[in-house]
Amino acid sequence: MTIIAASTYSFNQLISKGEVSQLETISLAKEMGFDAIEIVDLIHDDSISDRDYAKELKKEMDRLNFPITNFTFGADFLNGSDGDFNAEVARVKNMIDIAEILGAKSVRHDATSGKIGLSFDQALPYIVEGCLEVTEYAAKKGIMTMVENHGFFSQDSTRVEQLYSMVNHSNFKLLVDMGNFLCVDEDPLEAVSRVAPYAGYAHAKDFHIKPGSDAFPGEGFFGTRGGNYLRGAITGHGNVPVEQCLVILRNAGYKGPLAIEFEGIEDNHYGLKISLANLRRYCQKVFGD
């Protein structure tokens, strides 16, 4: 059976309102019927260290017999740690140590958000060096590393494919987010088809799309790189062909977990309940679960 995880990011609406803590989203996700959890960042106050907080998260997952599928966190090998490349690499390695505490066998870190006036090809040597050094460190701990098509710079399928090819390490894969390609106005089917063979993990994310030629649709929407408008959607309610993207992943040999990363304006409980039901149905049809 395909494992479907809830990303803790999907609960950001509740977390930001103070209605639940990140720690509490673990039991909430299990109650909703998810199979596992994806931990995104570490959200806690200053009364506890990252490492001690990670131990608390691990203790809760063990108590619930609810596994972690992935640990996701930010990184930027051009701008992070005040532009100090070596310091940023060291910081990301420390996050790999946190992943080990959590029991995660894979992590997703970012590559870079880019710099004005710097092309992707110009940035590539720096981010390749960072990704390679981190994945070599993580491999010794049995943790696979990935970058995601995320943001507006390290996002296009051709760019993440190029990054994957240049890192060229067996421990380095791609997190394929089928919805995020729309942030750079790329057709999800074409993009997922390109990068599916390199997938180490996948996000089932959906978006509503409005053309940039229309008036701004209002609160909840944001602009793409090309000037169109996107709003997070319940999985199956938006314009991303989620089921067809799953077929592409299946045909490329992907058999790993899927995570729902819900960022719609609907109530988190309601949005995740429908998203999970829809994704379960798609998986039954596509993977025969």
UniProtKB/TrEMBL annotation:
Keywords linked to the UniProt accession: Isomerase
Record GO terms (molecular function): isomerase activity
Entries under InterPro entries matching the protein: IolE/XylAMocC-like (IPR050312), Xyl_isomerase-like_sf (IPR036237), Xyl_isomerase-like_TIM-brl (IPR013022)
Domain Xylose isomerase-like TIM barrel residue range list: 27-281
Gene3D superfamilies registered for this protein in UniProt: Divalent-metal-dependent TIM barrel enzymes
Highest taxon of the lineage: Bacteria
Name the record gives this protein: Sugar phosphate isomerase/epimerase
UniProt organism field: Vagococcus proximus
